[in-house]
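Quick one, T. Sequence first:
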Amino acid sequence: MCTILHLEWSIIPKFPPRPILACSGCGGHKPFRSSGRIRLNASGKRLDAWLIYKCTTCDATWNRPVFERQSVRSLDPTLLDALQTSAPDFVARLEFDADALRTKAIRIAESEEFEVRRQALCDLADWWKIHIALVLPFPAGLRLDRLLAAELGLSRSRLQKLFKAGEITVEPVRKDALKRGIREGTTIILDLRDEAERLSVGGRAMGG
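Structure tokens:
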């Protein structure tokens, strides 16, 4: 019988990071979204690859370099196939690589909306503590306190009080853990003394 309610939360951004670029069609700076398509150009035995983005207002395009002047022979056949078919999983990894995108754009807009997919990992009877493990299929620019406030129905000030009182602990351990961005493998343990609050938070944590 579990005395700890073990949950796994998968955090899915509603959309990938979008570069803010000078748009030739609109005449101003606009967010661009990925088209999901990769364009290839061969010159002799060299290959260029770009991920095509479109202005969210006028559909003007921007070619985001994946690589340039790459020897075809040096490419893994699996990678070459992913490029030629614009394989969705491969494209998604490019789309959500915010650090790489920042090297190509002065500013990016990251999703402020997220889907949280919950899974219970043990029997739910007679639990006293809540253990939440975060899974991030893609990087997410979201602070932990904002995530917990939205999903557990607690204010940020209440979260901070519980954190200082030791009723919320976060691993990896840091003094400012609640104010940091969420990461793959982050775990949150809630050992709430107030029974009514514990049951309420547990219900929200499970998606109820």
